[in-house]
Amino acid sequence: MFDLFRHYRIEPKLHRYAVMFSLVIVLAWLYFTFIEKAFFGKILSGDAQLVDFVLGLPLIFMFTVIVYACAYWICKWLVIFFLPHAMVPYSLENQQHGEEIKRQEETHGEQYWNKTEPHADNTDNENTENTKEKSAKNRQNRSD
Predict the structure, then answer these.
(1) Are 10 and 73 part of one and the same domain?
(2) Engineering a disulfide at 10: which of 1, 15, 16, 31 sits with its beta carbon 3.0 to 4.6 angstroms away?
């Protein structure tokens, strides 16, 4: 399920509706903050203080982005649950290239990518020490 959420996107026809739904939720949020809570009226009447402008407006706009993301993610979860065939995988351009995978294997060690059951012997400790040594060498090479 998480794999669908992470590596797939909503097909373009439904994506349009998900974006429109998210925008409607954002407009409802902005209506609530500016009109229902009388923030806009405070600004027009001159009752707004400096704190309202310095902290209030940025907070409202930051929450607007969060509300949009949450509404879109809810749409995506609903599509995954009820219409999983409407999910389309991301293009191959977004996937990691072989060079990037090799670099990460060098950085983290092969043990990081091949997660196996821990053995009773000290092979995990040896792999951890080897990984730490490789990381130290990489850091030293970068600093040179």
Answers:
(1) yes
(2) 15
Placement of tokens 């009773």 in the chain: 120
Q: For the chain, how many structural domains are there in total?
A: 2
In this structure, are residues 61 and 39 in contact, taking their beta carbons and an 8 Å threshold?
A: no
The answer on 10 and 74 residing in a single domain is yes
Number of H helices, E strands in the chain: 8, 2
pTM: predicted TM-score of the whole model, two decimal places: 0.58
Domain limits at 76? 2-93
Query: 83 and 100 share a domain?
Result: no
